[in-house]
Amino acid sequence: MTGAHGPGTSAATPDPARRGTSRRRFLGGAAIGAAGLAAGAAAGVGLASAEAAPPVTAGQLAAQREAQTVPFYGTRQAGITTPQQERLMFAALDVTSTDVQDVQRLLGRWAALAARFTAGRPVSDSPGNPDAPPFDTGEAMDSGPYSLTITVGFGASLFDDRFGLADRRPAALAPLGTIPGDAVMKPAITGGDLCIQACADDPQVVFHAIRNMVRAARGTAVLRWSQLGFGRASATGAGQTTPRNLFGFRDGTNNIHADDTGGLDQHVWVSGSDQRWMDDGSYLVARKIRMEIESWDTDDLADQQRIFGRRKDTGAPLTGGTEFTPIDFHRTGADGVPVIDPHSHVRLASPEANGGVRLLRRGYNYTDGQDPDTGKLAAGLFFLSYQRDPHAQFKVLQTRLGKSDLMNEYIAHIGGGVWACPPGVRQAGDWFGRSLFD
Fold first, then answer.
1. Distinct helix (H) and strand (E) counts, the chain
2. For residue 223, what are the CA distances in angstroms to 115, 195, 215, 344, 355?
3. What keywords does the record list, in alphabetical order (predicted)?
4. How high is the mean pLDDT of the chain?
């Protein structure tokens, strides 16, 4: 499928008409709590007084959530600073073709599909041939977009000698080298020429997006590995509450938020790099971090809080205050011992301990059921972070954490990778990373 300005098809204008009634709308409506109802009622106050405004029902709030869209076209890719959604599916693929034009056509198809999916539309509006497989797999047929975002990245392996791109590989994609804690990384769930990150507030919507984009890659690329995530483990949007990880602690309290434009420009968005095609892009580091749930559950509360450096109930630092109170790393107790352990997670990960280095975190909890070898829960954190330079940011932080973080007794990095996420798709006919091939 080739558009007028490059490979791909242009996406149709989103249809404002609501399509069939969604079963998930009613199921989701039942899960809306009183706080959500109150917020929705407040949002519904317009010219009329609050007393005159009709009550907003759980079903109406669920319908609004289902219909919510995030613009796809833009200077920068969505899914980086977008307020973090509740569900994730991540996929890494390897390119099997040796023709660079096949890669370009694939990126064009993906851009066209992403534009449709993020608007709540199927692969095609054509009825198709009843004697052939349908264009769309159909599992999201009666669903809205649920704030779906689709973010695409290029791995270092894409810049080998297959496609003539070796001299266009950014320095930031050079191998990170040996980092403490990487010894158990599994090759089968590490790396990939391409990656797709799909985030939304509905699990079937993210699955549908990845499934159909992988399907569209047949003949050009194959799935290398994938991961489902639930229950966001970070907050990226202004006003989002800090979520809890599977150890039960609030995680990412000091994350960069979307309204911190200065922080984003300094730490997240690429500009003036050695490869100008990456300007307005960002580098994604993903890590699948297994948590030793059963061992953690036997540890006493005081030690758990010492490991994190925060209270488990409120998220407040052990030096006092509320969750967002600045941490006094120099404070000592009556015995002269630092209140915040020097090897606590919050201390080692702090900008103060790392020359001001910060990341935009966008992680998710995950579970893969039961580990057949150990009988334990196969669960943990699927860590996603965005930054200007993985060497100057992620590697610096992870080297410090990997050496002496008290949490290392309970976690292991078992997979992941690094990808260059190029600028956004600006308009219909444009495609992911087009300037890389110019």
1. 11, 11
2. 21, 9, 9, 38, 38
3. Heme, Iron, Lyase, Membrane, Metal-binding, Oxidoreductase, Peroxidase, Signal, Transmembrane, Transmembrane helix
4. 89
Residue with structure tokens 């534009």? Answer: 115
DSSP characters for 310-336?
B-TTT--BTTSS-TTSPP-TT-B-TTS
What is the tens place of the pLDDT at every residue in 183-212?
A: 899 999 999 999 999 999 999 999 999 999
pLDDT one-digit tens code per residue, 99-154 = 999 999 999 999 999 999 999 999 999 988 999 999 999 999 999 999 999 999 99
Residue 438 CB-half CA count within 13 A: 12
Contact 342, 401 (CB under 8 A): no
Burial (CB count within 10 angstroms: exposed 0-12, middle 13-18, buried 19+), residue 366: buried
Give yes or no for a contact between 260 and 267, defined as CB atoms under 8 angstroms apart.
no
For residues 359 and 375, give the distance between their C-alpha atoms in angstroms, rounded to a whole number. 35
Place of tokens 């798709």: 425
Distance, CA of 152 to CA of 78 (rounded, Å)? 10
